[in-house]
Amino acid sequence: MRVTRVYVERRLAPGARLWVGGATANHLARVLRLAPGAALTVFDGHGGEYEARIAELRKGQVQLALGERHGIERESPLEIVLAQGISRSERMDLVVQKATELGVARIAPVITERSVVRLDARQAEKRLRHWQAIAIAACEQCGRNRLPQIAAPQPLAALLGEPAGSIRRLVLSPAATLRVRDVRPADSPLQLLIGPEGGLSDAEHAAALAAGFRALQLGPRILRTETAALAALAALQQAHGDL
After folding, report:
1. For the segment 155-214, what is each residue's pLDDT rounded down to a tens digit?
2. Residue 47's closest CA among 146, 149, 148, 150?
3. 140 φ/ψ angles, rounded to the nearest 5 degrees
């Protein structure tokens, strides 16, 4: 029987007892209707997971008793940074969720010329917290014990201006000749840039190439931004990762 997985935003240790509240407590007590003694798996996002059980229930709170730690890792050997042009809420949410399931190490939301969504500082912070919550839920579901890093939204120019170092940079383009099978596997991280609805502008694409990105294509068809992200991640993981 599948054991419920719970993320806790604090460093954990075997034998500890801790109270959790908010949405986590509500999900365990009201949605799943778990009783004291129920078994759980708990992780803190820094690697490994803990056996646990529900020790006590109070109004709006659940006490967890932690047991043995298991150094289980489910991270891909292919370290991928997804630089995703910010799209409309439900599309961006889908990308964050599925990219987490597909094992990306980091998500860098970027604001481009054709981004429909425009965020001020307050909205950007709110959206970042929302994306982080989606990634947490995806880790709970898929078994990852490390949370992908999600960067604050930034202009594409800022991303392109970052030193590449040893990272390999790819940008999706239907006109490219490079295919996933032609990307050589390596120990260095890989950064994948995908435009929002409408794609990157010609000037942005040229700027990406000037910044060291190589154009990559997935086939002859034009894909929606959320489809392109998930198809590219799955293809790269299948060719060079752990799928």
Report:
1. 999 999 998 888 999 999 988 999 998 888 767 899 999 999 989 999 999 999 999 999
2. 146
3. -60, -40
Cβ atoms of 64 and 40 closer than 8 Å: yes
Helices (H), the chain: 22-26, 89-101, 121-142, 156-160, 202-210, 225-240
pTM over 0.90: yes
Residue with tokens 């891909």: 76
The single-letter DSSP state of residue 46 is B
Return the sign of the alpha-carbon dihedral for residues 111, 114, 115, 118: positive
**Using alpha carbons only, how large is the chain's radius of gyration in Å?**
20
| 54, 38 Cβ separation under 8 angstroms | yes
Q: Model confidence over 121-132: pLDDT tens digits?
A: 888 899 999 999
Strand (E) or helix (H) holding 32: none
If we measure between CA atoms, which residue out of 217, 210, 175 comes closest to residue 192?
A: 217
Per DSSP, helices labelled H in 48-120 are: 89-101
Q: Which token pair is 85? A: 């042009």
CB atoms near residue 231 (< 10 Å)? 16
What three-state secondary structure class fits 51?
Answer: strand
pLDDT band with cut points at 50, 70 and 90 for residue 107: very high
Distance of CA 189 to the CA centre of its chain: 15
The DSSP line for 145-177 is SBPPEEPPPEEHHHHHTS--TT-EEEEE-TT--
Q: How many residues does the chain have?
A: 243
CA 75, 78, 98, 95 dihedral sign is positive
